[in-house]
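User: Teach me something about this protein's shape.
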Amino acid sequence: MLHARRSARPDLALERVDPPSAEMAAHFYCDIGNEFFWMDRAEWTDAQWRDTLATPGTELWALKADGDEAGFFVLTTPSPRTREIEYLGLFSWFAGQGLGAHLLTCAVERAWESGADRVIVNTCTLDHPQALANYLARGFEIVRTRTEWRELPE
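Assistant: First, the predicted structure itself:
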């Protein structure tokens, strides 16, 4: 069950990027994810982004605040009737304004609207310090944990 939390800001707009743009996805991934050591796709080519975004069920959404890019999420369909919030993030200058809860609420609602029976998300200790608390507050449950070691750049 979703525990929705929306911002009361009248200047917010959520826009689907359709078709999903490789350039925009890479921009969000690198510029937002760099702070959190998102490295798996940092060196991807436009062709790799286009290929993954062309996967059926993949959606790219952008959150704007007063017309400026504030954040994004990517939904995928890893299996029938399952939607995954594969990426979700805000630019750091929008942190602390309640927009993370708003964006997550929008992502979960879109996942349910698209006919999902199950919505999943994965996080790690390198994500924003409030990420796990936000997921739990919106109604997600911890299903599994694992330890993985990574070499991080200095």
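Now, about its shape. The radius of gyration is 15 Å. The chain has one domain: 12-137. If you'd like, I can walk through any region in more detail.
User: That's plenty for now, thanks!
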